[in-house]
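Holo prediction. Input below; ligand is PBG.
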Amino acid sequence: MITGKFPNLRLRRTRKYNWSRRLIQENNLSCNDLVYPIFLIEGKNKKQPVKSMPGVYKYTVDQLGVVINNIIKHKIPMVALFPSTPNNKKDKFGKEALNENNLVCRAIRFIKKRFKNNIGVMSDVALDPYTTHGHDGILKKNYVTNDETIEILIKQSLLQAQMGCDVIAPSDMMDGRVGKIRKFLDKNKYHDVQILSYAAKYASNFYGPFRDAVGSKKSLKSDKKNYQMDFSNSHEALREVALDIKEGADMVMIKPGLPYLDIIQKIKENFKIPVLAYQVSGEYSLIKSGIKNKLINENAIIESLICFKRAGASAIVSYFALDVAKKIKF
Ligand code: PBG
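Structure of the complex:
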């Protein structure tokens, strides 16, 4: 592959000038590669800072007009909605997930009514925003039951589709849920609603600030290791993705992001399917505090996002999405 040697071969030649570096650049980042996560709160006319994530806010549904306008203006193709459910609406079974007037349902209706198909709306399917114990499914003897949980998840998926959600994103890691959700959506004539499966979601220590933001941190007892993946494993991620594709996933998500670039790359190499990556809350807060403390330069943000592209991600869910889109503009 190498066709010469030093001193006639000098790789620094093409790095000498900015125009030349631009010319040989292998990957770049566009607004089209970004998904912006939005936290929702109950109430009216509120924009509340998330303490654990400086620069990130929670919005009441009536504020979404301004927020989404801005996102569309900066060419971001899709938003991901995350509700911060008040404790009095949580129970053991996560019943609020099936309430057509819950926060997420109201937000989907609001956005789709006002902005039609000028923006994609993605929403998680899992019970953790709604359960008092903070787990993604039904808890029995400290174990999250699989098949029983799926029976609720398929209803949650259908409800979100009925509200107008474009992309259903099961983030619960139950076995077999993608197939059951696809079947249930199709049976109810929602053939065109996409499924973005969180196929490889790890039991990670990087979700702390998010759990704080949605209020599941204090309530979560133990951990999610009996359903989310062990961070020591990568072949298992390939099996997860293979199964989800068979069951009908249109796209797959890898989560967290930066520490898992090897997984993104392996999956992209093995399956020719759109791979999305989630630069999670802990990654956001780490980079943010590094910048604040002047330990790193703020270009580290764009660097981190281009690294996802280099690894093979089609798009990245990132709390930096809006700031970055404002900067790159194409
Ligand atoms: C839960 C969910 C989590 C995140 C997104 N959806 C946390 C968890 O699994 O406990 C984390 C995202 C982030 O940290 O930014 N289904």
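The first helix runs from residue 18 to 24. That is the main takeaway for now.
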